[in-house]
From TrEMBL:
The lineage of its organism: Bacteria, Bacillati, Actinomycetota, Actinomycetes, Kitasatosporales. This is Polyketide cyclase. InterPro entries: Polyketide_cyclase/dehydratase (IPR019587), START-like_dom_sf (IPR023393). It comes from Kitasatospora griseola (Streptomyces griseolosporeus).
Amino acid sequence: MMVEATIPAPPERVWELVADISTSPRFSPELQHTEWLEGAEGPAVGACFAGHNARPDGHRWQTVNRITELSPSRRFAWSVLPDTVTAQGDAFAHWFYELTPEGAGTRVRHGMGMGNLPTPLHAFVAANPEREEAIVEARLVSLREGIGAVLEGVAAEAARA
């Protein structure tokens, strides 16, 4: 799943925002706070960070994330893991930002794909198989709206610079 937006700022400015793990929590309805783990102080391939999440229904959880790709002003990607020692490739999900210059601005693609590990969503669907389609669609809508909110916030912040 991916959401795209054109942000009226150069890729270097947009990159400053999307590669900063503290940006998304300012705009996301779900991601509330992030912090670097294991002594990491900034984005680098292999660096890990925690994501603290909450939904309006009161459900709260924390994720461990490892940066998997970092191409300045082009691509920032990370995997959501069960812990910081998980073998490469084993993940709940893979998230990314892709930046492409477009005119005087930047085309941003922000999205995620499922990993190979089962998530709590899998368990919820297994417990409610008759509602599988509605459960998955509701989660997709929530993710799309959250990604859209982050991109709108990034665009607004980039415009202020």
